[in-house]
Amino acid sequence: MAKGKRGGQAEELDLVPIMNLVTILIPFLLMASSFVSLAAIDSTLPAIGQPPEPLQDDEDPPLSLSIDITDEGYIVKGGDESLKGEGEDKGLRIPCAQSNCPTPDTYDTKELRSLLVDLKEAWPEEENVILVPTSQVPYEVLVLTMDATRNDPETTEDGKPRDLFPFVVIAGGVQ
User: Fold this and answer.
1) Fewest CB atoms within 10 Å of the CB: 2, 33, 120, 124?
2) For position 68, what pLDDT does the model report?
3) pTM exceeds 0.90
4) Does residue 145 belong to any structural domain of this protein?
């Protein structure tokens, strides 16, 4: 049997290349982290609690503005008489420019904003809107709709876009 060296000295590891790599890598990672940015869209959850108290005879009903977002376009519903549509899905329909809304750009956000401007003039104190997207609606469409409901960039007040319905509630959609 061949005898090996036991108890011989081990060679020292050369850690200089690894230390050089770490020295270069840390500043690079710190610089790259400044390019990553996150954006948040403010939204509120639907309220859960006691149902609202019944209205008195002399009170106007609330607007209760809601916008259904489907693959056919928008359905705007609410307490205003102009929003009382006919058929199974009551409400005012704003169809897409193309059938089945193939891209987010085909949703008619200009017509939606125009309708919301008219509603804001009739209901100046109202600030809430409920968005009800279906499960097939892309996220980009939801963001475009939120932007269209919050303010009107064509009308300014004190140099800022006029607020329409800044408090957006996203409700669970229909399948």
Assistant:
1) 2
2) 92
3) no
4) yes
Q: Tell me: the pLDDT tens digits for 23-48? A: 999 988 888 877 667 777 777 666 66
As for how many domains the chain has, the answer is: 1
Q: What was the pLDDT predicted at 144? A: 93
**Which structure tokens are listed for 67?**
């916008």
Sheet holding 128-133, edge to edge: 92-95, 73-77, 66-70, 128-133, 167-170
Over range 11-16, report the average pLDDT. 87
Q: Which domain holds residue 114?
A: 66-170
User: Is 12 a domain residue?
Assistant: no
